[in-house]
Design a protein that fits this description.
Largest sheet of chain B: 9 strands, mixed
Structural class of chain B: alpha/beta
Shape of chain A: flat
Structural class of chain A: mainly alpha
Shape of chain B: globular
Mean pLDDT of chain B: 82
Helix content of chain A: over 70%
Radius of gyration of chain B: 18 Å
Mean pLDDT of chain A: 88
Order of helices and strands of chain B: EEEHEEHHHEHEHEEHH
Number of helices of chain A: 11
Distance between the termini of chain B: 30 Å
Largest sheet of chain A: none
Oligomer: heterodimer
Helix content of chain B: 25-40%
Largest interface: A-B, 19 and 25 residues
Number of helices of chain B: 8
Strand order of the largest sheet of chain B: 4-1-2-9-8-3-7-6-5
Order of helices and strands of chain A: HHHHHHHHHHH
Chain lengths: 266, 244
Amino acid sequence: MKKSTLKAGLSWFQTRTNPRWLRLPFLLLLLILWQVGSPTAPVGALPSPFAVLSVIVSEMRSGALLSNLAITFGRVIASFGLAMSLGTLLGVAMGRNKTIDRLFDPLLIVLLNLPALVVIVLAYIWIGLNDTAAITAVALNKLPNTAVTLREGSRALDKDLDEMALVFHLPTQKKLRDIVIPQLAPYFAAAARSGLSLAWKIVLIVELLGRSNGVGFEIGIAFQLFDIARLLAYALPFIGFMLAIEAFIVQPFENHIFRWRSGRHA
Amino acid sequence: MLRVRITRKTRQSASGQLRIVLEKCAFDLKPGETCALLGPSGCGKTTLLRIIAGLDCDFDGQLERPAGSRIGMVFQDPRLLPWRTVWQNLRLVGISQESDITDIAAALGLSRHLNHFPGELSLGLARRVAIARAFAVKPDLLLLDEPFVSLDPALAIRLQEELLALVHKRKAATLFVTHSIDEAVSVANRVIVLSAAPGTLIADQTVEELCGGVLHARVHRAKEAVSALLGNASTSHNGADLSL
């Protein structure tokens, strides 16, 4: 009886709530646990949500938080865009052409197995302590994953649809837009989703190691001062920002391009 | 006019052995002609259609199509783009005006389904969309690979009638592969029969020739004649199975 009531309650919640708000209960639970656990932790190790919020407000007022968030976000977008565009081109070329695949496969294997830290340090040494090096290092870390994913997508392109395009003499532009890109879209979406999270994680390390601004740099300062409230005050808004991008941009975009999957003939 | 002169078409098996798929297939197809291609399973009917469509160029012989001729093809499976609506699928290949495509869709009973995605359609409807797409290119040569297979008889007959009406309107040279003698005789005005593998052309006759010009007995006698030809085709090649 209780089980069916719970099921009915969940079903009611699902049907009457926008799916993206379904994540809220978990986040709320996390917040409550944090508040409850904060006093039991060693002094300074886990400041309460209110302590962190007060640091966020003060950093916002000074303008430092927003400016650092914007700088980090800019680096994430630049490196993500670079990795996605070059990785897609390389992956598709490798998937479609065996010679290109054999030529670039060793490079992909090297990049996939090269630790992110090595790439970052080498980029700073070879290019210099600047944004170009930072963005290049992040892009090089993400590029092989994108290329491998898109290579698989490219190999899985439907040959029957290729033949259909050939018989009906579809121009290259139409073939790309209507046949190739829609088939690659799920692979691109998967690479983009993992890429965005990977890019911002590596951007923070890159900033920590060699930049004088950005969320990563501020977290480095907080680490040196053992200021956990400041550390969380910079980390949490950025996590929130990335979650918002996922919920309000990435997912609606995915839903739009995959809307044809929703209606299936019984 | 389509001119087919295939001397030999071979295919390499996975074990590396060369297998002859088609041999000595020569025929012409004039505009407005509707020709059925019959033969036992595995005799190379689909291969022949693919060669004519330009999807397989690895054969000995010659193939001549008028320069600039447009091909409309209906594959065994509909091969629609699942991420495009019916209307977008028709517009994709269509060089026709929107109004022409609307007319073709209406003729095939698709008007109510233009905004549906292929995944929302039954197999019969999807096949109709594939036929409509073939007509949307205003074809000079129409190739159909078992377009009515696995449809219920009533729907198949309706689609055959709709197809004939469109073919007569367009005056396209039509070649269609079928396993059904009924279908061949009721839709086509000419029948080509291939022998069991390797497919060799063993008969190329009009339906009138097959029934001796007696119109009232046309369908019955043509069926008998084609059945006899197919019987010869199987026995002349070591009794290969005829799964018609």
